[in-house]
Amino acid sequence: MTDLLYTDIEEDLRASVRDLLTDSASPTALLTRVETTEPYDLKLWRTLAADLGVAGLAVPEELGGHGASAREVAVVAEELGRCVAPVPFLGSVVLATTALLDADREASSELLGKLAAGELTGALAVPLSTVPGSGFPAAVKVDADGTLTGKVGVVADASVAELLVVPASGPDGPGLYAVEASAATVTELISLDLTRRVADVVLDKAPARLVASGEQAVAAVESALNAGAGLLASEQVGITEWALTETVRYLKGRYQFGRPVGGFQSLKHRLADLYTDLVIARAAARYAADSLANGTDVAIAVSVAQARNAPIAVHAAEEAVQLHGGIGMTWEHPAHLYLKRAKADELALGTPGRHRARLAGLVDLPA
What we know:
Elements lengths: L7 H17 L2 H7 L8 H10 L18 H13 L6 H13 L3 H12 L5 E3 L15 E3 L5 E9 L6 E8 L2 E8 L4 E4 L9 E9 L2 E5 H40 L1 E2 L2 E2 L4 H30 L3 H26 L1 H4 L6 H13 L4 H11 L5
Parallel strand pairs: 1-4
Antiparallel strand pairs: 2-3, 3-7, 4-5, 5-8, 6-7, 9-10
Helix pairs in contact: 1-4, 4-7, 4-8, 5-6, 5-7, 7-8, 7-9, 7-11, 8-9, 9-11, 9-12
């Protein structure tokens, strides 16, 4: 059996990302930013993507990346979840890059090199709610002159993307296309999650470059959706870990009746339940990341992780709000940002119910 424990390389990567986020993504800075007209921290994103090399982790070395695997990408996702960093990691590094990695290498190599170097930020033009295994998206059509027309709603990180990777159908069947974001109309929507924005993307005879066609295009989109759902489970681990750690810290420092609130038995039990949930969530997320890295049991591992981790992250964030008392119910504390991210993640790339239904079919479980 594969060892699901973190390797020394993964721990070193975690330490580097955590140090950067501790310095650049503090709760105070986060709370201030989400209420401005620039909710994304693009300076932090450039540092992560280019200087730290996060954008090119899974890109082969010959294309300018680091040749790592989904396990390393999952470590970064976990750390970003711990501080709900407002950066387009999911849309660019996970969804768009993964789709291009499974596209025609000759057609996509230049784009992958720019994404890996942090010169481009990408987004996969599918609704964020799309569940793996739901079929090839049909919202965008290929015109007779090879341009693209259609509308895709609720696209993650599209508002800061410079490159759109667009699934589209035409007379020759399904295809995957690269489109400059400037050729589309991108309208940011009011989102529950203030730290990961979504947008509507409208294409009206937009010039496009074909990067995959036929079954290869279908497989590339499915691979990206599986990677997105699987690695989202690691982000949910980060959310859960933050909720537990911060709540324990708060309850140790708050006193009632002359003793720390955290010493009361009923609260101890709730915290113990959260710790158990965290252990379960981490095991599921690590298995999903390892399966994505090795290409074995991918669909099953991804659906198990999402069916389990999404409700765990929501519950942990709800407990953090409640156990922080009055301050936890206000926007002065970052707990509400974690709850909103957890709720948005629960809907992203398939709800727990959709993943349980998918899992039933994968393991031949009767309805």
